[in-house]
Each structure stands twice: as C-alpha cells, then as structure tokens.
Amino acid sequence: MEFVELLVENVERAQERFLSALEGLSLEEVNAFPLVDTVPSIKSITWLTWHTARELDFQIADLAKTNPVWFSKGWKKNLLWICQMIRKIGITLLKKRIKLW
Prior knowledge:
Elements: H1 3-22, H2 27-31, H3 45-64, H4 69-72, H5 75-89, H6 91-100
C-alpha cells in the first residue's frame, strides 16, 4: 500500500468512527460544554470537531505542499470575528450571549 493510500484510508476510518459517535446526538448535546464550571478546558464536541478538522487541514496541506484551506479559502478571515469576540468578552459570556440568540 502506498503512503498516500494509507493516509486516505486512515482519514476515512476516522471519519466513519466520528460519524458513528455523533449519531443520535442533538444539537444541544454536541454544543454542550459538559464541565464548564469545574473543568473549563473540556470543550464541546462541536469545538473538538472544528479543531480536529483544522489540524487535519494543516497536516494534509503540509504533506501536499499546499496552503491549508483555512487560509486558501478564506475561512480564517470569515471566522476572525469569533476569535476577536472571545478575546474581548471571554468564552463564558460569549456562550451566555449565544444562548440568548
């Protein structure tokens, strides 16, 4: 098996496991920060998904000697306001405001 085939197979298997783990979860469940009051470093499933996708984007781009989609398709620019808001008001207050929407 070639290196690229192995990489693709590993990513596909990870995607299958990920989709299986999400099956049946509600939007509220995937967005929940389960231990925000006691262990705020434990993130929501949504956050973990986003972070994992970004990491894969950077790693695959490095292997392919291209720019990550995060930069090349403008995702960083499009989502910059979220990062700025978190820095400005903090994650706890941001989550409270989001619940009000």
